[in-house]
């Protein structure tokens, strides 16, 4: 009787699994290809619909360092650019006041970033797409072996039919501050400045209108957009506390690659880009305007954000300057502590910050010397929870194939009340490779 019972159980299990699979989405049926000439389209079909849906052969593939592999149809209605890069980072750090039970010196070797980028256009050269995915544990916010962040770093679609009104929609960096708008793979130092991380606006879901060349003058760009204001919390329901921003870039000597910090072109003619941006963040749930941590009292913040910046390049020398200002006011929440008492209201992080960064290529070599000073200051006029923080440092970069293969070394000292340890020294060596 036992073998018969086992057979019954096995049959029941097979039926159960098969039934479960039947409820899942089955593969779409593949229709056989008709033979002979195609029939005429129905009278109510849009003109040219068959041509739009027809197969298109792929032309030649091309590869370029830093751009990756591109596949394109002969008419370039469809293109796919495939690019990937990664960073391996070694760090030695000394804390003046280490946390309880910790040593003042620490070292680490981490797979810092691993990125995959897919981009191109579909149906027409005017409709583009950009997908930037991340896979490194730090990128995904691993904690106790569990990722806390989705792998989407940026994902958006563009429509560029009109040069003076390009439309972009999706999840991407708010075009507010120069250093954060520069691609991560094209940074001159191992990381952005402390002021940049404090005052810049992060990625968010939104829609922007822009022009890469206003009136065809080769001297002016603009960006204007509306964003959800939730950052990586885009999966949650929004309270209509949106973020509104606008940015203008003026290039008096003509267009150049001003969002790549190093001066690879080494032209003797000077190049200059001056930018300014303003953003109003309404009912933001985090301390740094689309970045930072949630307010402990459960409330929100409204804030005015302003930045001005400049990028100057000549003969292998580059100079980046920026200034930030934030003034916000709190909308307190009603959170209570474990004893049922209201949580103290945390003041907005009001204050200013700045960055001064320079790079210089040694003539006829691929070696670049870099230096940077950055600061954050709390406001003296209004209440603030922002702490003072200063950093200064220098570095060396060797570009084997520009940003496609480079080795970066830098040293920084950070100090001030805004740093938990009071004073910290950090030495970093980073290898970046990609195609």
Written account of the structure:
The protein is mainly beta. The chain has a domain at 89-112 and 186-205 and 215-434: Porin (Beta Barrel), CATH 2.40.160. Helices cover 9% and strands 44% of the residues. It is built from 4 helices and 18 strands. It has helices at residues 2-23, 49-53, 178-181, 194-199; strands spanning 62-64, 68-72, 79-95, 105-121, 127-134, 152-159, 166-173, 203-211, 220-227, 243-250, 271-284, 300-314, 317-331, 351-361, 367-378, 389-399, 405-415, 423-434. A 16-stranded antiparallel beta barrel has the order 3-4-5-6-7-8-9-10-11-12-13-14-15-16-17-18.
* Secondary-structure class: mainly beta
Question: How much is the radius of gyration in Å?
Answer: 27 Å
Order of helices and strands: HHEEEEEEEHHEEEEEEEEEEE
Mean pLDDT across all amino acids: 88
Termini gap: 65 Å
Overall outline: globular
Helix content: under 10%
The CATH top-level class label of the domain at 89-112 and 186-205 and 215-434? Mainly Beta
Biggest sheet details = 16 strands, antiparallel, barrel
Number of helices: 4
| CATH 2nd-level architecture of the domain at 89-112 and 186-205 and 215-434 | Beta Barrel
Protein name: Phosphate-selective porin O and P
Organism: Nannocystis exedens
Keywords: Signal
Biased composition (Pro residues): 29-44
């Amino acid at each position: 009787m036992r073998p018969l019972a086992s057979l019954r159980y096995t049959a029941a299990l097979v039926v159960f699994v098969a039934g479960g699979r039947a409820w899942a989405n089955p593969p779409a049926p593949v229709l056989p290809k008709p033979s002979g000439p195609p029939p005429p389209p129905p009278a109510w079909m849009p003109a040219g619909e068959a041509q739009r849906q027809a197969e298109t052969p792929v032309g030649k593939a091309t590869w370029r360092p830093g751009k990756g592999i591109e596949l394109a149809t002969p008419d370039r209605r469809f293109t796919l650019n495939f690019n990937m890069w990664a960073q391996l980072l070694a760090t030695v750090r000394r804390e003046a006041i280490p946390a309880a039970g910790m040593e003042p010196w620490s070292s680490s070797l981490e797979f810092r970033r691993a990125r995959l980028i897919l981009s191109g256009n579909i149906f027409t050269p005017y409709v583009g797409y950009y997908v930037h995915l991340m896979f490194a544990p730090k990128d995904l916010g691993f904690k106790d072996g569990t990722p806390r962040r989705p792998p989407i770093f940026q994902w958006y679609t563009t429509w560029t039919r009109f040069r003076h009104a390009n439309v972009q929609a999706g999840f991407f960096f708010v075009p507010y501050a120069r250093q954060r708008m520069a691609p991560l793979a094209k940074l001159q130092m191992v990381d952005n400045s402390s002021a940049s991380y404090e005052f810049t606006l992060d990625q968010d879901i939104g829609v922007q209108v822009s022009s890469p060349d206003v009136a065809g003058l080769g001297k002016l760009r603009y960006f204007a957009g509306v964003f959800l204001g939730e950052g990586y919390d885009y999966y949650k329901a929004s309270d209509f506390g949106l973020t509104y921003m606008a940015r203008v870039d003026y290039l008096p000597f003509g267009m150049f690659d001003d969002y790549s910090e190093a001066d690879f072109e080494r032209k003797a003619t000077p190049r200059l880009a001056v930018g300014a941006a303003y953003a109003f963040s309404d009912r933001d749930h985090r301390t740094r305007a689309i970045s930072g941590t949630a307010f402990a009292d459960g409330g929100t913040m409204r804030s005015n954000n302003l930045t001005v910046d400049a990028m100057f390049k000549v003969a292998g020398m580059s100079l980046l300057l920026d200034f930030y200002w934030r003034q916000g006011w709190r909308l307190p929440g009603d959170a209570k502590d474990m004893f049922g008492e209201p949580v103290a209201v945390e003041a907005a992080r009001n204050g200013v910050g700045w960055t001064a960064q320079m790079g210089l290529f040694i003539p006829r070599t691929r070696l670049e010397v870099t230096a940077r000073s950055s600061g954050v200051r709390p406001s003296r006029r209004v209440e603030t929870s922002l702490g003072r923080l200063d950093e200064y440092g220098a570095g060396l970069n060797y570009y084997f194939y520009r940003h496609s293969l480079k080795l970066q070394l830098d040293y920084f000292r950070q100090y001030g009340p805004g740093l938990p340890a009071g004073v910290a020294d950090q030495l970093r060596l980073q290898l970046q490779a990609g195609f």
